[in-house]
Amino acid sequence: MTALLIIIVLVLVAIAIWQMTKIFELSQVKSEKSEVANDQDNKLNGYLMFGFLVFIYLLTIFSFWKWGDKVLGTPASAHGSEYDNLMFISFALIFFVQIITQALLHYFAFKYRGEKGKKALFYADNDKLEFIWTIIPVITLAGLILYGLYTWTNLMDIDEEEGDPIIIELYAQQFNWKARYAGEDNVLGGANVRLIEIDKNNVLGVDESDPYAKDDIISQTELHLPVGRKVIFKMRSQDVLHSAYMPHFRAQMNCVPGMITQFSFTPTITTQEMRADKGIQDKVQNINKLRADRRANGEDVDSWEFDYVLLCNKICGSSHYNMQMKIVVEEEEEFNAWLEAQQTFGEQMAAAQ
Ligand SMILES: [Cu+2]
Q1: How many CB atoms lie within 10 A of CB 328?
Q2: 197 alpha carbon to ligand 1 midpoint, in Å?
Q3: CA of residue 266 to ligand 1 center, whole Å
């Protein structure tokens, strides 16, 4: 109610100001001031446009200098550099065209500013010019789109028969992730939200009667991946749209309630190796410096060590910002040892009886 009253008062004040300026204008004796721009006005506006051009160029240079290092660093998956190339070429092209067209736009606005006695030339059309400025964008955009499609089909490698992939389910719910490994048979058991039984800790709704489900392994805290082996992720969502985002691996796929979406990649750099990466080390140092400052102010924050991370990249509710899971990429033997130590779904259900 108070908000409504405040809005009404603000609207009334705005109307009052508007009416007062009108009265003020009417009361002015007609002077030299004309609504029509003269040569001097046009010249001033031309220079102001040049000023704006310089401003956007300086802003661009400043942004590169200040935030240029905030881009994603070394890609940690096999398709990562292909993805980065596509991104870089698209950006470079947009940047190049933007620099040239902005300069031309502002220059011509200045050159053909209004001047007394100068009359605009009536120029109906020019087929040749129109052809040129249509065909160049058509070819460029078609090239970019084809290159994008080629990259996409190349990295959408979800063929289960090829390259001995390991099958992992990513299960999204407000506001956490769970991972289910397909186990020894490398086949995920059936699952359905209707089969969720909290009493038995069957939080993913895995079908107990499905023989494929017995050896499945559910991890609630960490996602372990073996380096150099293709992983096929099958994503499910329990409630709303989520998006499984693994920035270091250049991977993202929506998780949609009622259907299974897929994405696959091959991790190429272990967590240990990535911790030694120059870009990552700089980032860690910078964050730990900020945290040390906060500690000095009496805040209780630990220093940070780099880990790969699975994030949610769809605004899915109030705790969306904290919907994440640690990813550990390790050598195949370490991975197998970790997997070995986990309880299978069958064991978990037997223990819950
Ligand atoms: Cu989410």
Answers
A1: 16
A2: 22
A3: 24
Domain containing residue 341: 166-352
Kindly provide the b/e burial profile for residues 42-72, where b requires at least 16 CB atoms within 10 angstroms of the residue's own CB: beeebeebeeebeeeeeeeeeeeeeeeeeee
pLDDT the model gives residue 33 = 65
Residue 182 lies in a domain: yes
Query: Which of 86-102 are b and which e, b meaning 16 or more Cβ less than 10 Å from the residue's Cβ?
Result: beeeeeeeeeeeeeeee
pLDDT for residue 147: 93
**pLDDT tens per residue across span 254-299:** 999 989 999 999 999 999 999 999 989 999 999 999 999 999 998 8
Ligand 1 centroid – CA 13 distance (Å): 44
Q: Are 204 and 218 in contact (CB under 8 A)?
A: yes
CA distances from 197 to 67, 170, 201, 247, 347 (A): 48, 19, 6, 33, 16
Ligand 1: distance of its center to the CA of 238 in Å? 10
How far apart are the CA of 85 and the centre of ligand 1, in A?
Answer: 28
115 belongs to a structural domain: no
Q: Is residue 155 part of a domain?
A: no
What pLDDT digit, counting tens, does each position of 107-131 carry?
998 888 888 888 888 888 899 999 9
Q: Which CATH number does the domain housing residue 296 bear? A: 2.60.40.420
CA 81, CA 64: separation in Å to the nearest integer? 21
Q: Tell me the pairing of strands 261-265 and 251-255.
A: unpaired
Number of domains in the chain: 1
What value does the mean pLDDT of the chain take?
A: 89
Domain assignment present for 203: yes
